Amino acid sequence: MKKLKFLDKFLFLLNSLLAFALLLSYLLPHIPPSNFPLLSVLSLGVPLLILGNVLFLIFWLLRLKRHFLLSLIILAAGYNYVVAWFQIGKKNESTTNELSVMSYNVRMFNAYKWVDDPLIPEKIQTFVNEQDPDILVTQEHYIGETGKFKEFPHSYIKLKDKGSEFGMAIFSKYPIVNKQSLDFPEDGNNNSIFIDIVKNEDTLRIFNVHFQSLNIKPGLQDIKDADSKQLIGRIGYGFKLQQDQAKILKEAIDESPYKTLVLGDFNNTAFSYIYRYIKGERFQDAFLLAGSGFARTFNLNYFPLRIDFLFIENSIPINSFEVFPVDYSDHFPLMARLNW
């Protein structure tokens, strides 16, 4: 009996630590990474903290112990925060005036042969053709495969540097009347571009964004083999760069006189500072309005990670949202249908 009581005490201590960590994570969207970069790393582990508290809640309920109240109160206090990770299935609608938008980090169409499959470019092309979006934005775009999207009569492709073969791209079935690159100052392939399209005299501005990568490898063994101090330091530094890039993007968004969409790879979660900073009061997260399940967008082996987003102007109804679990890249494509 004493052993059982000791085990209960130990489990409740572990429960308390997880509950406190989850409570602490509620502050992360309000703290700029430049102030506490190491604390910002906690945002990547929020799904595990949520799951741990849910499991403890169920465990104590089954044991008929009042200990369940701890996790229940913490989860309830951050309800809107918690549901950013998981959504119960939403009813999809359709209208005659729809605009479908897709975001896809294509990982350079496997140009460096990360996957032993020479048909990856053709598979991506076939997938896009089958889904038939009106707007396609791609990150880590390889210029050598641009010709595969001939069904889009209009496009804007911005390579990071002269002589580079990689960059950002937006493909459109509607005429592009304006286009611009924000040109993030850091080296690498991270950037944001936007276009303006017109339909029936209504102008829509569409941003494609790719924030600084944190260089997290998808395999669990990769995490085990990595030097923990170097990994955390690298992630913290990446968060600080993301904050600088987000400031550039936010200024451009605030200058937009049109209804606006922000699509792309944030390389960060819905529990982060930059998610809250960019979304603000102006946008809806398409997953929260019309998604279901975990909406895992990064092919990580050990838990569902959503780091790609479709932010839609509040005044635009969202009819449906879907993430497609096709393994042609380390990211999964996501698409929403809008009433426009």
Put the structure in a nutshell.
The chain is an alpha+beta fold. The protein is built from ten helices and twelve strands.
Could you walk me through the main structural features you see in this protein, from its secondary elements to its overall organization?
- Keywords: Endonuclease, Exonuclease, Hydrolase, Membrane, Nuclease, Transmembrane, Transmembrane helix.
- The chain is α+β, with helices and mostly antiparallel strands and 340 residues long.
- It has two domains: 2-82; 98-339, 4-Layer Sandwich (Deoxyribonuclease I, Chain A), CATH 3.60.10.
- Helix content is 34%, strand content 24%.
- The chain contains ten helices and twelve strands.
- The protein has helices at residues 2-25, 37-40, 46-62, 68-77, 79-82, 120-131, 220-225, 228-254, 273-279, 286-290; strands at 98-105, 135-142, 154-159, 166-172, 176-181, 191-199, 202-210, 259-265, 283-285, 308-313, 318-323, 334-339.
- The chain is globular, with a radius of gyration of 21 Å.
- It starts with a helix and ends with a strand.
